[in-house]
Amino acid sequence: MGWLVRPVALLALVTAMAFARIEGEPWRGIVMPNQMRVLEAREVQYESETMFRTTRAMVSNQTIGQIYETSSFMTDDYRAILPIGTAAVGTNLLGSWYWGSVFSDVAWWWAGAWATATLAALAGASPIAAFLAGGLAAVGPLGVGYIGSGNLHAASSLSLPIYLLLAWKILDRHDLGTITRGVGIGVIAFLSSITYTYQWVLFPVLGAMSLRPSMRRWRLPLPVALATFGIATYATRAALDAVGLGVAAHMNDPLRVVSGRLDDLHAVVADPFGHVVGICRTAWSVAIDTLWAYHPIVAVLGVLGMVRGPRILRALGACSAILAFAQGLVYNVPWVTMTAFPAVYASVGVALDQAAQALAKACRRRGWSVRSARLAGFAVALGGFTIAAGATNLDLVGIDAYVIRWWGTWYVPH
User: Fold this and answer.
1) Which of 16, 111, 140, 296 is deepest in the core (most CB within 10 A)?
2) Confidence (pLDDT) at 258
């Protein structure tokens, strides 16, 4: 029964965090009350209309033309097909549009927390450190910040460690042929693209990791994976076109955002020295915003754990952090700059576990019993986790400063 402890404990954490906001105030309602609407006597964020519309397409007998009469099937719908499908299942089970969306968010959030813990263990973290990593994903802002809003962003954001874990498992299967592993990675990247836009994370991170001497065993068949991803994407888009759901680009579609920054890039390339101050200012802003996206306490613990942790975790953390920073230079919002969160949370778990072990050894040297020394170490790990988790959840006691800071890079310009 020991194998049940971690997933059950993580589900309890996720459920507690979710219902605290559902019965209280969603973060979006705290910072942008003018963007909230009412559905089934519950507050939801206005963008959730697109998600509920597509859920209705999966659940009701209305035609595609009736449901999408006034607006197009957007890339926001396309990139959340799987969470929307889970919401449709929840709607059928629970008989409620609102609770169907909560069902989807909680299911993916819990799976993401469990995958974060499993990834940490694969990267060399101890069982305690791995559980703490999963716990941080369960109480972190990527889930807490969206639950109750109805836009399924909690489900989408927490899907990254799920797909990283699946990719890791496939690349570690030496009994599979190169083509088979390439196709598997391509399918995983495709599934991530209809859960969120994490194909933009998977390919660079896995590619960079596989170049390291310690990870050469992976032998990532990137051309096969890219070809599989392209074929699956083309086939899916063609099928959607055939039923009248041609995908229209949302204003925050990654390709649209990147193309909107090309003029800035051309200006920098044309006169790099003339833009040094601007580049430094932007880089500093992204670094500070990333620090606050995680919270400084979590970020500092993450750096300490990454420096002192297993080599493979350092590699995953470095690749993920560099990519997240580069993405933040293009689109500086917390759900983008936090795409290194599986490695960061694993590193925090390692830091807390190492502190606990160091204290336990010090206590033993002073003559404490083994049991008392272990309890002292456990208290340090639990206390550190409580401080890190509490720092990002002070809204539960009426202190909204972190919520406002976390959403600040988005709601100030909007």
Assistant:
1) 140
2) 65
